[in-house]
Each structure stands twice: as C-alpha cells, then as structure tokens.
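Hi everyone,

Forwarding the result from last night's run.
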Amino acid sequence: MPNNKRKRMSKIKGKEKAHPYSRKARQISRAMNKEALLSKAKIDRVNSAMSRGQKIVWFRDRINEDDLKTQKTWTLMEMRSLLDEYLQRNNEDMDELKTKREETRGLSPKEELFVQVVETERKEAKLAGLDVPDLNNGLVVKTLRIWDGDVNSITTIKLTKCKPTDADNEAISADPKVQAIAQATGMVVG
C-alpha cells in the first residue's frame, strides 16, 4: 500500500474540494491533529525550559553577588543552604497573601496559582529534591557565571538533585553511626 499519509497541511493538494467523508478529508484531519500535537509539545517544551531557566538564573545571580564572587566551588551543605534561600525567596509574598486571605478577602486566580506553584515546589524539593546547578564542579560554576541567560544553552549547565537541609532531619535515623556517616558525607544513609 502506498504511503499516502501526508504529515503537513501544506503538502495536501486540493483540500478545498475535499468531500467530508473522503480519504483526503481523513488526510486533512490527520495533518491538523499532528500540527496541533506538535504545537502543544513545543509550548510545553518552551514553558519547561523557561521555568528551568528562571531557577538557573536565580542561582547564577546569587553566586555572582559580592559575598560569593570569590568562591570557586560549593560543598553539599552550602548547596543545600543556597537551595533553602531559593525556596524562601517568596516568603514575603506568601505572608502578604496569607494576611489578605485572613481578612476574608479572597485571592484572585493568579494569586491562587502563585500559592499553588510555591507549595508544589516546596513539596517537590522536600520529597525528591530539585534540580540545581552542580556547584561542586568548578567548570560548571565558571560556565554558570558567564552564562548569558539563553534558554537554548541551558544544556551546557550540569544539574544535580539536591534536597533542602530540613528534609534531611526527618530522614536520618537514631543510630549514631548512621548519623556520623550522614554528617561527614552530607548524604542521607538509611
């Protein structure tokens, strides 16, 4: 059977004259569905890259501040403290929204979405950890400092999973040997 599955609308000829139940109508329908799927996937990719880019921009700006400008690499505990700072960046806005909610004044849908995004981000950080730039590696730190914020070059920055410092306290067991290993290595054992 010939391959008559046209993938794009521009390749289908005579689409204006197609009968509603014809093979050409099915071709048109397939092509339209394919284009809709591709555009949706593109929008999802762009949104994902933008959110990842915003996170990396925050870390880049933070490590370029005067107090951290001379530091070449970070330990795991320092990375966790940076992650804590990142997660607490919206605390003032959250407090304002909380007082607004207590005044029996409802939140707008945009504010509700903001609260939901912040809570989801904190929950994800606590459970699975967030992808943050690998500041243990000096090359990654150097790349991050000179990064121009281009979304397409995010792949040059190596990311690693990192949990905030308070997420560890619940996971460390009561065994002193396990605690000593966890404290020495900065890793959760158990």
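The longest helix spans residues 23-63.

Cheers,
N.
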